[in-house]
# Entry
Amino acid sequence: MDEPALIREAQRGDLDSFNGLVLAYQSQVYNLAYRIMGETDAAADATQEAFVSAFRNLRGYRGGSFRGWLLRIVTNACYDEVRRRKRRPESSLEAMTDLDLEPEDEGAARFDSQPELPETAAERAELGRAIQDCLDRLPLEFRVVAVLADVQGYDYQEVAAAVGKPLGTVKSRLARARLRLRDCLERSRELLPSAFRLEGETVR
Amino acid sequence: MSSLRDLSERDLEALSAYLDGALPPAEVARLEPRLADDAGLRAALDDLRLTRRILRSAPALRPPRSFTLTPAQAGARRRPAAAPALRFAATLATVAFLAVSGLDLLGASLRQSAAAPAAAALPQPQTFDLQAPAGEAALESAAATEAPAEAAPSMLLGPMPTPTAPPAERAAAGTPGLGGGLPPSDVGGTVTQGATPEAMLAAGLPATPTPTPTPRPTPTLPAPTEPAASTFAAPPGAQSPLWGMSLLNWIELVLGGTAAALILATILLRRYA
# Structure
């Protein structure tokens, strides 16, 4: 069944149709949540909460990009989860172990498959760890924009809709986030796969 | 690579947007000649491009489980929908309970103040004419704790000469046993009933020239009407009708219980929904 039909049926309360949408989007949603929060448990909680919230509010969806509508809900769920975990800061150790879990996901699909990506699982894991470490150092509002635009590759309009901010704010936050990320990635350049290292040096 | 850090904020934003093809054409027209001339600016753009490329190459994770909703998760959406209504009902019941309790307390304090000479103006407006003499006498007498209920109104209306006040005071003080253990309003009520006839006979009639025979019925009227007026909040044990008092108490009880139950239900719903 195509997406508009699934949405229509789900809006009438058909759970199977909604779960069809969940299956179609859960990987994107989970990865977005993971990159924003840097923890698998927190990402899973936010993902589940986002889908429950989406089902509750599905009647409020009035057409347009369903992904954009969903991104807004996911982003809000992430903000809520981050706030909730700030009040219960017992999971800081999990973040460290989560990064070690990443190499096991080598078979996962990629949203942006560039030909020069690192070849080995170890290289990918190393890259993922370095990126996440730098993302985690960003203020939340910068991180969310950087993850949406650069990690997930959504366009400015979608990012603006997801964070509920004007386009100008998105552009400004993204530029600053990129500057900070670039500095951070340069510091951990030795951790980056050779392809990126070499290019970084040639740019110099 | 240090060129990126040296950029102004404006140039940084322009380069970042240019990289994504999101720079307005007018600004593109201004930026591109500068890029052609300025190697540092080109290097900064390359830096941004490389940064974006690294971020886009972040490996995607496989979701640890399926996030499809179970019927229970889907059904759970209706429970929180009841929460706002429940919260409103709990608030309403609490406010009503507090209002009724406040009314009850106000009534009680009025009754108490009715026993005090200074603040007893409200409850017995009917008795002022004939009990004026007793009022000033009561002020003078420290022992006249029962009399002030009738006395204070007369003060408000302007005291009259009271040559025969002491008998009224004595008449009022003649029932000291009542004043000891009972609430002041009870005392006021009984004293009015018990004392005013005597006060009328002994003091009122000779003392006050203005109230000719016509006021005579009035002291008899206040006596029965006064307790009726105070039944709304009178405590049990008084001579006033019991059902009126207990009705108020019943309302308080029901409202209090309802408020507590609704608050408990709201908390439980929030915890388990």
